[in-house]
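Honest question from a wet-lab person: if I give you the sequences of every part of a complex, can you actually get the arrangement of the whole thing, not just the pieces? Trying it with mine:
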Amino acid sequence: MSQETHAEPNYLGVIMILTALTLIEVAVVFAPLPKFSIGILLVGLALTKAIIVAAYFMHLKFEKRTLALIAATPLVLCTLLMFALLPDNNPKKYVPPVPQKPVATEAPTAEHS
Amino acid sequence: MSHAATMEVEPAESPLTPESWGKLGMWIFLAADAMSFGGLLAGYGALRYVSPNWPNPLHTLGINLTAFMTFLLIVSSFTMVKALSARRHGDLGKTRLYLVLTMMGGASFLGMQAFEWTHLISEGMTISGNPFGSALFGSTFFILTGFHGCHVLAGVLYLGVTVLMSGRGRWGYNEIEITGLYWHFVDLIWILVFTFVYLL
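Yes, you can. This is the full assembly:
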């Protein structure tokens, strides 16, 4: 069984950075900033934390680049999905279907011969 | 017996993870699983955007407990890498200790999630409706956090198997690393769920 040859990252440093970023996230929520800026900051912080976990805890930084590309594919596809859904997401554009009047049909006449 | 039949066939090496095929298998599984979570999160975003009366998660869910749960998972990821590090140095006792600590972190997370769910259900929030606003708020919350919770439960069980197998010396560094990949993924997904469901 082979073992990895790269040097161990400073895991204590990594966990401290992740904890600090979590605290910043909680602080950003209550910051007197526009809602849009808070959203951008929170998504940025979450992605940074996710990348740190993947790079250092999951050792992706020390793996072959192709493996990192495989791991990043879902993120790219899901981002595309979000944008693909955007045009349908505008509630102002939503027009409720108009109920159709029943088409008047002639009463069936019984033919007696 | 012919010469060809007695020849030993060298197993082909995994092209991306020379250490083991299992590691590549786990990465491919995680990529597929990430798509599941990605689809759920994209659906959550779309439903939330079109719902005019979406409640403010900060006021309805609260973030004190979940921020602590996030910290707990980060710490459990730390104990997981320490277990791997101990196995690398051949210290089986410490490996087992750190693996058990990781399991305890996961089990505590599940306990806190159960507490949170019970509290919200007692306030009238269910998968089909809630007193705070859009019914989809409860539906998406329980589906997303429930799906993640199932992953944590599976992770705790997987860690239990790893403790048993590594204790007997049947699983070595590579197998523990593969367990770790799954556990860190659960942590990574929670980081995103915490942001999208609780903070935004």
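Two things worth pointing out. The mean pLDDT of chain A is 81. Residues 11-78 of chain A form one domain.
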